[in-house]
Amino acid sequence: MRRLICSLVAATCLATPAASGPVEPTPAAQQSPQFVDSLPAQWNGTLLLYSRGYSPRPSVEAAPAPVRQALLDAGYALIASDYGAGGWSLAEAVPAQLAAIERFTALHGKPRRIIAWGESMGGLVTTQLAEQHANRIDGAVAACASIGGALGMMNMALDGAYAFRTLVAPDAGLELVRITDDRVNGGRAQEAVQQALATPEGRARVALASVLAGLPGWTDPATPQPAVGDAAGQAAQMAKAFVRGTFLPRTDQEQRAGGVFSWNTGIDYRAQLRRSGRAALVERLYREAGIDLQADLKRLNAGERVAADPDAVAYMRAHYTPNARPQVPLVAMQKIGDGMTAPALQRGYAEAAGTRAQSLWLAEAGHCGFTAPQLLAAIRQVEQRLDRGKWPAVPAGFVPHRAEPMLRPCITGGRCE
Predict the structure, then answer these.
(1) For residue 233, how many other CB atoms are within 10 A of its CB?
(2) Element at 351 (helix H, strand E)
(3) Taking the model in full, what pTM does it have?
(4) 3-class DSSP state for residue 63?
(5) 109-150: per-residue pLDDT in tens?
(6) pLDDT single digits (tens) 70-100
(7) Is 361 left (phi over 0), alpha (psi -120 to 50) or beta?
(8) CA angle at 198 for the pair 194 and 204, rounded to the nearest 5°
(9) Cβ within 8 Å of residue 285, ≥6 positions away
């Protein structure tokens, strides 16, 4: 069974010429959840509840194949559900995951401890469990997660897509919301990006759009991280991930929500660029290209905006906008060069959560794909926090890092910009 772990993994398909067949929205394809579990030869008493990432259709595995055996060898029992639905299925995911715990307990007895963990969209499922179901789990690991919430993530993506369409490809037929076909729209965006990258002007404008979307300056695991002062290198890295990280699939979510849930009404893009901390990078690229950055920002601020449907926003708040108040110890783990689920989301959550959560950063690029030692280190970090009552030092192999700021924060009980 093919595993889909990416945040809104259909975005990868949008930019992959070899992909075939439509990515069908599945809000109506709900079914009874399916479960899988695995027991180690010698169980240590801890159950790991795995929440998968976005998949167009229901899929299930107790843990990703590259780490499954290592988790069993370490003594952990494993359980997961397929949520009973594909797509942005957070409404179904949490009840299904709670049912998975009940199923495991009925079959194998009550675990001594339950640690929820998930990747990408599954990391947001895990975050909801940590914030709302402390009576069912003891700790959580949100990996490469959409942890800043659906609204904040998709609003940042909208800003990048809006800037790109306005400044680079106004006539490419790109749709920002109410998208007819996510795959076709993404293909058009990828073609427009490739054309833009052929000129210094286009490269500068793609970089501006990328910064507004919160994309990091390193996204390709096959290449070294660009130096801090390497504006061209960082722009090239952002461009590689631009479509995957910005033209995110919306059709399924809009069908579930009943309308448009993202907006950029009232957003001052001149102020957003200042807040990004990367204005100097963009200014340098614009200066070298011989074009006027202030004129482009004026165009963005004068452009036709996208307004949201309040009922659709309410749906996405419920499924799921975090409150950054986890009731159990939560570790957020991510690569600093994740071009699909922006590291800005983790920074935004961590800043709001304070000591309730701990961030672990890896000096790597790419989305998810953690090794068994990395995942085990994060799980054991939660276990030590449970045993000691305080967070231990950051484990070996992780690095200090301050990601780009989350430019469109949206936390329940706080700001939603």
Answers:
(1) 16
(2) helix 343-353
(3) 0.91
(4) coil
(5) 999 999 999 999 999 999 999 999 999 999 999 999 999 999
(6) 999 999 999 999 999 999 999 999 999 999 9
(7) beta
(8) 90
(9) 200, 203, 204, 207, 208, 231, 232, 235
